[in-house]
Amino acid sequence: MKKKVRKVLVVNSGSSSLKYQLFDMETETRLAKGLVERIGCGGPKDHAEALAKVVAELGDAAKGIDAIGHRILHGGEVFKDSALMNKANMAKARKLVKFGPLHMPANLGGIDACAKIFKGVPNVGVFDTAFHIATMPDCAAMYAIDPKYYKKMGIRKYGFHGTSHKFVTQAAAAFLKKPVSKVNLVTCHLGNGSSLAAIRNGGVVDTTMGLTPLAGLVMGTRCGDIDAAAVLSIMEAEKRTPAEMDTILNKKSGLLALAGSSDCRDVCAKAAKGDRGAELALEMLAYRVALYIGAYNTVVGGADAIVMTGGIGENSSEVRERIIGRLGALGVKLDAKANKVRGETKVISAKGSKIPVVVLPTNEELMIARDTVKVLAD
Ligand code: ADP
After folding, report:
1. CATH topology of domain 178-364
2. How far, in Å, from the CA of 220 to the mean position of ligand 1?
3. pTM
4. Per-residue pLDDT for 2 more than 80?
């Protein structure tokens, strides 16, 4: 008989930091959480050293860990679900480093470190792309360029934040008292990075991010959708290299470029004081979210609910109001009083709203822990 998986460590091993949470999965309670920073730049020299620090921090709590779940940025088309990271799957994952040259080595380095330090404890990989890849149809996933680029290089839409979209899909289905396999949703993960997903019968049929997390919405420092020819024009005029252009579009655009701060709270405060750049930035952000909600409501064949999550979605009544104010054509109406909610599950649409809007706090770490238990039970 298989050993029951109860104590699960969740590891998010990034390029310069390692975040962790420890769960008791019998009760789904968090026992500990923490962060090791500045890996390779003044702090621990590598992920193994960072993990040794975690073990020291956990003390007795590090004993008896049954399994470890890891957040992994990219599963390509190989990983359509979370998977046990045995030798064969690690080899497959290493081939996907090209899709995330910064994050993938750190994610996989975390697994290698755990395999050494927690000998015999199984490691499960939970991929940010998997929930999208599993069910997204080609008509949504493919780009209208020569198919040789897909065949040779895997250029297609993958989508990200899959773990968050999956968590709120399951939570929304429970909230609506519907089986997950019958629920249609538009899930909005609005944070520093933001994406929407169109959920039909519990699975993703489209999402706003693409080959990389750059596509789609206006984000903290990313521009989201842009005419590719505009990018070429800037590169040509300013003689920018691809790496420089990547930095401009990913790190120096979005709210930061439009309003001088990537933090939505700052932008809201500036707009309230009459700053026109900040006002326009919030309107652009809200406009694009509303645009995609309209499109995705069509794509899912009529949503049972619109879900708001992520730092902005869970906390910013102002941004939610700006978005929902643009959904009149869908018959969506806001309940201004309910919309004051922060960080808890609540319906924020008015009684007569054709589609309910629900604020639902995401919990990616718990989703990773749940998947870890599930993979090891299968
Ligand atoms: P990440 O994508 O890095 O996980 P989060 O999901 O935590 O980020 O979201 C961070 C964003 O949420 C920031 O832009 C922050 O300003 C915004 N945010 C958090 N609380 C509020 C609030 N009360 N009002 C407006 N924005 C908020």
Report:
1. Nucleotidyltransferase; domain 5 (3.30.420)
2. 9
3. 0.97
4. no
pLDDT at 1: 53
Q: Which CATH number fits domain 7-127: 3.40.50.150, 2.170.130.10, 3.30.420.40, 2.40.30.10?
A: 3.30.420.40
Residue nearest atom 1 of ligand 1, based on CA coordinates: 192
Q: Which residues line ligand 1 (CB under 6 A)?
A: 191-193, 220, 263-265, 268, 310-312, 315-316
Three-state SS for the chain is: CCCCCCEEEEEEECCCCEEEEEEECCCCEEEEEEEECCCCCCCCCCHHHHHHHHHHHHHHHHCCCCEEEEEECCCCCCCCCCEECCHHHHHHHHCCHHHCCCHHHHHHHHHHHHHHHCCCCCEEEEECCHHHHHHCCHHHHCCCCCCHHHHHHCCCCCCCCHHHHHHHHHHHHHHHCCCHHHCCEEEEEECCCEEEEEEECCEEEEECCCCCCCCCCCCCCCCCCCCHHHHHHHHHHHCCCHHHHHHHHHHCCHHHHHHCCCCHHHHHHHHHCCCHHHHHHHHHHHHHHHHHHHHHHHHCCCCCEEEEEHHHHHHCHHHHHHHHCCCHHHCCCECCCHHHCCCCCEECECCCCCCCEEECCCCHHHHHHHHHHHHHHC
> Each residue of 262-287: pLDDT tens digit?
999 999 999 999 999 999 999 999 99
Among the atoms of ligand 1, which is closest to the Cα of residue 255? 14
Q: Could you read off the pLDDT of 290-329 as tens digits, one per residue?
A: 999 999 999 999 999 999 999 999 999 999 999 999 999 9
Cα–ligand 1 centroid distance for 276 (angstroms): 21
Report how far ligand 1's centroid is from the alpha carbon of 217 (Å). Answer: 15
* Domain limits, the chain: 7-127, 178-364
Identical fold, 7-127 and 178-364: yes
Looking at ligand 1, which atom is closest to the CA of residue 268? 25
Looking at the annotation, which residues are catalytic? 128
CA–centroid distance, residue 216 to ligand 1 (Å): 18
* Residue nearest ligand 1's atom 19 by CA: 311
Mutate which of 168, 187, 258, 264 to test ligand 1's pocket (most atoms within 8 Å of Cβ)? 264
The 10s digit of each residue's pLDDT in 139-197 is 999 999 999 999 999 999 999 999 999 999 999 999 999 999 999 999 999 999 999 99
